[in-house]
User: Which sequence fits this backbone?
């Protein structure tokens, strides 16, 4: 018998008690997973204490968040005692991705992308823990075997206008992300991904053309996954990444496979799932063993970020140092340098180590280890000071400048230099006019939360209203003025 409205929701209460959450924390986790403003922070109190059922699709969103945190499935029917329907448009990110690592399996995955079209109303729910690791389990276990194509075709210079056009477009697509952030041009890059998928799905190509198209699909899929991650659409990002991994595997491009796994590791660390980050990063390191020094350095830097997120400082130091040594030594590995490694420089590695250290130190300070935590933060600040945070608006690295500037401002806030924190924060927020990077904006939101406790400081008093206004304007521009869902 369904529970009547007005009665205490005992299932929700038990879930919250097990997690040690109050209803406000649940609201914040829902907003973190699905976007700021999805639900009012007061709403879950009514769900728990008065047995109220929220409007669609919040019942499924709440069940998803609780399932992720509890590590077991909590169904919509169980949570709301049969008084709420599931949301069919909310589906796991691995929907239809559990295919064999074969050409036929890839074909079935690509078919889903093609048939879903440009207007795919599904909302993909990000995976974590066992579900995420299962999607790449063969890479974790080292049993992937080989794909159907040789690593590099003998006739790599085959003249085919269609393949040439697709391949020549790849570097230009990457520049869109660098300058404008993931959210601005993700629909366009996603359309390019589906276009290549449509060509593969149609068939009729020579083996050489099919292999080169498959490699292009993998590269665009990796880029689209990164842009979706930068857009904070984590489920969609994982879907692109896993599809790209299938494609890269079919052409035996182990360097690209390692790069994709490292991206997934970096995403998991950013989502605060450090154990997932470490497992994915260590798999990426194993897969990259025969790659060029630059690829291996990039993979190690992502693994180092995962170690920092997990609080494993010694492992962070070792991986970060190995990445630096590989870049400084140059050469090594087999094969030519992949075109998608254009971004990696010694300074990029330094800055990644910088915000990894700030992330680690900030967590330690929150946990009460202020002295060693601040030491890590100050070291991170020194590394990030050499980065892109201060480049002019005409520089193509605008998304990187916003991201690194947000981290650097947070670092100075932790170490107590509020004048510098506000100065750099102001530079970062000025980029919101041209850069659409919700991942970076989330860091600015965290900065605003921290600064609210320090409003008596004159620099904070001057900067905080400006920061909050810019964040509000940014949110409105993305949501089209979406209002908060109260219940």
Assistant:
């Amino acid at each position: 018998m369904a529970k009547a409205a007005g009665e205490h929701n005992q299932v929700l209460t038990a879930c919250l008690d097990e997690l040690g959450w109050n209803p406000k924390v649940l609201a914040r986790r829902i907003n973190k997973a699905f976007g700021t403003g999805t639900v009012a922070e007061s709403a879950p109190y009514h769900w728990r204490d008065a047995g109220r059922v929220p409007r669609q699709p919040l019942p499924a969103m709440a069940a998803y968040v609780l399932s992720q945190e509890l590590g077991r499935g909590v169904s919509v029917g169980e949570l709301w005692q049969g008084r709420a329907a599931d949301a069919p448009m909310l589906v796991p990110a691995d929907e239809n991705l559990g295919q064999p690592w074969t050409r036929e399996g890839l074909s079935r995955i690509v078919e889903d992308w093609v048939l879903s079209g440009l207007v795919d109303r599904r909302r993909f729910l990000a995976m974590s823990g066992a579900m995420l690791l299962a999607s790449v389990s063969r890479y974790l276990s080292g049993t992937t075997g080989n794909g159907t194509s040789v690593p590099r075709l003998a006739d790599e210079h085959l003249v085919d206008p269609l393949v040439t056009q697709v391949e020549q477009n790849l570097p230009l697509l990457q520049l869109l992300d660098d300058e404008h952030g993931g959210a601005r041009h993700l629909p366009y890059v996603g359309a390019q991904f589906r276009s290549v998928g449509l060509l593969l799905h149609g068939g009729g190509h020579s083996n050489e053309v099919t292999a080169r198209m498959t490699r292009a699909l993998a590269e665009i899929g990796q880029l689209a996954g990164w842009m979706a991650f930068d857009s904070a659409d984590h489920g969609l990002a994982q879907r692109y990444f896993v599809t790209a991994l299938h494609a890269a595997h079919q052409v035996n491009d182990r360097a690209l496979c390692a790069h994709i796994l490292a991206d997934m590791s970096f995403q998991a660390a950013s989502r605060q799932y450090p154990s997932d980050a470490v497992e994915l990063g260590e798999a990426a390191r194993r897969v990259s063993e025969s790659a060029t020094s630059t690829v291996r350095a990039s993979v190690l830097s992502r693994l180092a970020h995962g170690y920092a997120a997990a609080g494993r400082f010694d492992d962070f130091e070792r991986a970060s140092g190995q990445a630096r040594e590989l870049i400084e030594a140059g050469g090594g590995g087999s094969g030519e340098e992949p075109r998608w490694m254009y971004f990696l420089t010694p300074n990029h590695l330094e800055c990644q180590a910088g915000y990894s250290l700030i992330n680690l130190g900030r967590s330690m300070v929150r946990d009460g280890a202020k002295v060693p935590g601040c030491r890590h933060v100050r070291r991170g600040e020194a590394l990030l000071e050499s980065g892109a945070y201060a480049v002019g608006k005409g520089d193509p690295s605008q998304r990187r400048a916003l991201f690194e500037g947000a981290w650097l401002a947070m670092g100075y806030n932790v170490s107590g230099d509020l004048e510098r924190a506000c100065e750099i924060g102001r530079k970062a927020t000025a980029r919101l006019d041209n850069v659409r990077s919700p991942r970076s904006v989330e860091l600015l939101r965290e900065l605003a939360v921290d600064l609210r406790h320090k409003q008596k400081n004159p620099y904070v008093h001057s900067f905080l209203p400006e920061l909050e206004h810019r964040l509000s304007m940014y949110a409105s521009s993305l949501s089209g003025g979406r209002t908060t869902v109260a219940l």
